[in-house]
Amino acid sequence: MADEGGRLSRPKEPRRTLLPRPRWDPEAFGKASEHIARFLGTGRFIAWMTVFVAVWLGWNVLAPPHLRFDRFPFIFLTLMLSLQASYAAPLILLAQYRQADRDRVAVEQDRKQNERSIADTEYLTREIAALRMGLGEVATRDWIRSEFEELVRELGQRQAFPLESEEHDR
């Protein structure tokens, strides 16, 4: 498709509004949401929420009628709990997404480390094999010792029987 007058090649102009757009650091917002989500998942939160609901219900059932602010069926309490849940769910999801991103990065780093470890192990295995092959051609201490012992015996025989060894050499 042809670009009509270059309208697709230029970014869209930002909207002008009377109110300034709120600006916040996404990282700070994410950290705050993780802290809140961690608190929402604790027994302390459940205990405080239970105390709050019990006090609310107790006040609105046992207080004098003119001091009650949320009569049975406690619609305002239901509204408050729904509002709390409507904020808690996205915060928990955001915290889970951030944790999943961290897990993904950690898995990728572990995979790269494992690849490096495997490469290092393969290199060391090749080096050990090369050393073993090279040692097959190197004179060992035991071999040199046995050769010296054989030479000493041969020299001892030549000294004991000098004539035989001279004839044998010819």
From TrEMBL:
For the keyword Transmembrane, the answer is yes
Q: Where are the transmembrane segments?
A: 45-62, 74-94
Keyword line: Membrane, Transmembrane, Transmembrane helix
For region Disordered, the annotated ranges are 1-21
The record's listing under InterPro entries reads: DUF1003
Which named protein is this?
DUF1003 domain-containing protein
| Organism, as annotated | Streptomyces palmae
Q: Supply the source organism's classification.
A: Bacteria, Bacillati, Actinomycetota, Actinomycetes, Kitasatosporales
